[in-house]
Each structure stands twice: as structure tokens, then as C-alpha cells.
Design brief:
Blueprint: E1 8-16, E2 22-31, E3 38-48, H1 51-60, H2 68-93, E4 102-117, E5 131-137, H3 140-147, E6 151-153, H4 156-161, H5 170-178, E7 185-190, E8 193-199, E9 209-215, H6 218-227, H7 239-242, H8 248-254, H9 258-261, H10 270-273, H11 275-288, H12 294-317, E10 325-329, H13 336-346, E11 351-353, H14 364-377, H15 385-388, E12 398-400
Helix pairs in contact: 2-3, 5-14, 6-11, 6-12, 8-12, 12-13
Amino acid sequence: MRKRTTRTARVIGLMSGTSFDGIGAALVSVRGCGLATRAELLAFETFPYPAAVRRLIAEVSSPPTGTVDLVCRANFLLGELFARAALGVARRAGVPMSRIDLIGSHGQTIHHLPTPGPLASSRYPAAGRRVASTLQIGEPSVIAERTGVTTVADFRPRDVACGGQGAPLVPYVDYLLLRHRSRGRLALNIGGIANVTYLPPACRPDQVLAFDTGPGNMLLDALTSILTDGRKTYDRGGAIARLGFVSLGQLNRLLEHPYLSQRPPKSTGRETFGVPFAKELLRYLRRRAPSLSVADILATATAFTVESIHDACERFVRPRGPIDEVIASGGGCHNRTLMEDLALVLAPVPVRTSADFGIPVDAKEALAFAILANETMAGRPGNLPSATGARRAAVLGKIVPGRR
């Protein structure tokens, strides 16, 4: 009797996070599905957004400036840019699009409201019950049309429809790729928002714990831009923060933020820790701590990211089991000041990066959405209810057929 073979697919994963930096595109060889998944990163490229596009995304993400006509046009514009990123990574890898089997696109989140609430306006009393919602743009029909490749997108809404937070979704891929029989692993991603996935030794899917810990790079980037009048959009390598001193009093005040003590499952975003929060923080500091320098403010904000991660580990993770190693990824890994401080507070637990496991720190989330798209096409759930709070595991995303 012949053995049944498992086909290997070439899948492009596309990801743009809450920092609005640009589009990460990963070309991934995926074999099998579910627990049998084997993935190999073939190529990865980052395609930065032009400054005008970053401003546009910021505008459509911020009520009341995000008018419906602007959101409508931005949705299709970003679809074009996501398609170019897919074409670009395939071209740079020397793989023709005719040999690409699938594209998985996260899109660009412009609003995330995972906690049920009423419509903001009192003019709609008949609209009914409280609802949770999330919105990602980057029209997948445009991606499928420009590339000719079947595209899976809009992964988060199905989880929200199942009563979940719609985030985080990468923990399912963490479970597939990083679980270990004898070691407790903490997968830490520091993007605009920081999030963790805890994988206890020899864990089952329902034992995985994952949630957003609080701000990652988002608050640092916003403060840097405001404090330098736009001359810098981020603190490269944490160089400015390294020159400052942490204000313990202001750090302790930041650590009283109610999100930090909220129990998982939970997720957050720009609505909580974005530009409005940064502006409010600066107004407060100018009144209460006017002697703080720019470097002191950034040092204190960097410490806030570090300590909120540490607090989450102590408060929610350690009661679940041992943390034998931390595996970090995301843009925050390029901030030397942040990473060195993180290693100090988490010691003696070693802090490694996903690069040690063959996944560049900037590529992990794009790779994850390639795998999630593959799961969708296999008819398999891509969420972990233990992470998102959904009532059940569900097949995620919407499928737009390609031309072939």
C-alpha cells in the first residue's frame, strides 16, 4: 500500500503592526497542518511605509478624523501596498508568483475594541445590545487580483464573533513551533504592544496562556516623535533613553494603570497606549516633574515597558508553572537599552531571541500568518480559546480566490 504524502505549500505571510512602520513579508515553506505542521522561512523582507502613508494610517485610526471616505480609500490603497509586498518578497527570493500557493494577510489594524460596549453616540438608542469589534484594512480582493494568488485575510473578527478578544492569535503558532516536552517557555513579542505566550512543559492547547502585557514600542515611539518635534520617529537602539535616569515616582504611577492588573484573557492597542496617552503623560509630567529631561522621560517610559512585562510574568505566568527560558521577537529586540534592562529584571531566566530558533525577530508575526492561512485552507481552527477567551476554537479568516 502506498503511503499518503503531505504536500508542501509556499505561502506568503503579510503583517503590519500597531507601530505603522511598514509591511513585513515572509515567504514560508509549510508542510502539513495542525500538530504535524513543519515550517521553514525561505525569505523575509520589510517594506517600509512612506511617511505620508504612516500619517494616513494614524489619521484613519484616530476618531474623529478617520472619516468613512478616508477609511474606504485607505483600505484599497493598503491592499495595493500589501500586494506589492507579496510580489516583492517573491521576486527577491527568485520565486515566480505562479509557484506561490497562498497568501495570508493580517492587514492593518485601525481600531480594536474587544470589550463589549455601546455605540459611542447616544443618537442610536435603537441600535440594540453592546458589541465588541475589531477592524483591519488592506483589501484582500486587491491582493488576490494583483498577485493572482488565493488570499486569506480578516483573521481576527471570527474570534471576536465567538466571544473572544480577537487577539492574540500568534500563540497558536507559538504552540505549534515552540512547545517543549520538559521546558517552560515564554514567547515574548515586543511590537507596538508587548504580548506573551506561556507554554508550560508538555502542554496541551488548553494550557497555553497568552495576553497583551501593555505597551511595547508604541508609547516610546509616540513620545520620541513628540519630544523631537518629529525629527525622530523612534529612539534608535534606546540610545536616548540610555542617557537618562528613571524617575521611580513616575514609573510607579505608570505601573498603577488599570490594564496591568486586569486578568487575562485581555488585549489592548493604540486606543489605550497610543498618541493620546503619550500626550496626556507629557502634560502630567510637565506639571508634576518639570525637571525631567527628554532622556529621563524616555528612560522612564522604557522602564514602564520592561516592568509591565516583568509584572505580567510575576502576576499571571509564574503561578502557572516554571519559566525556563524567554524567546523574544519583534522590533523591540533592536532596542538594546530595553533588552538589557529586561534581561536584568528576568534574571536568572535566560532571554534568547527567535533568531536562535531560525526565525528573524522581525519575521515571526508574518511567518505566523502564513501558517494561520495554511490552517484556514485545511479547515482547521487557528485560535486558542485559552488565549483569546473565545467560547470555542474556530476556523479563522475570509478566503478570496486567486485567478488560478
